[in-house]
Amino acid sequence: MGSTPYAQSQLASVTARGGAWLVDIVASVAVAAVVSLAVGAVSDGLADLAFLLVWVGWYIGPEAVWGLTLGKWIVGIEVVGTDGEVVSAGAAVARNVTKIVGGASLLLILAGVVFIADSENNQRLGDQFADTLVVRV
Predict the structure, then answer these.
(1) Percent of the chain scored above 70 by pLDDT?
(2) CA–CA–CA angle 54, 60, 66 (5° rounding)
(3) How many whole angstroms separate alpha carbon 119 and alpha carbon 65?
(4) What gap in Å lies between CA 25 and CA 99, rounded to an integer?
């Protein structure tokens, strides 16, 4: 990939990223479930869509605006462009679409962990696709 404005020691570890993911998955599913139940009380047909939109939006919205999610904030990491600049909305979408697809099974999650550990800049496939890094704050 080449050089980045960050030293290897500034890149988020697999452990930090995993901790952030765990916080985010629990919190996002809980919030999405509550919203889905509320929407389902009004329209059964929209409950699943509401769940999906809240769950996906949990990652894309905060990363596009602040470069981090609740989980990343708790563990002290954030997403930036490979140039060190604030992550763009397009990059937030790109990296999270691959996260959603990659989170579809335990095997794909484990493949993502291996990808991060084996990458020069601790990037999963979505980070490489979106030209992003996850760094310690």
Answers:
(1) 95
(2) 120
(3) 26
(4) 12
Instruction: Report helix, strand or coil for 119.
Output: coil
Rounded to 10°, the helix 14-42/44-66 angle is 140
pTM: 0.86
What kind and span of H or E run contains 20? helix 14-42
Q: How confident is the model at residue 2 (pLDDT cuts 50, 70, 90)?
A: low
Tens-place pLDDT, residues 9-52: 899 998 999 999 999 999 999 999 999 999 999 998 899 999 99
1 in any annotated domain: no
Cα–Cα distance for residue pair 131/120, rounded to 1 Å: 13
Average pLDDT, the chain: 89
Residue listed under structure tokens 């769940």: 51
Q: Is residue 3 part of a domain?
A: no
Within-domain flag for 114: yes
Kindly state whether residue 38 falls inside one of the protein's structural domains: yes
Domain span at 111 = 11-136
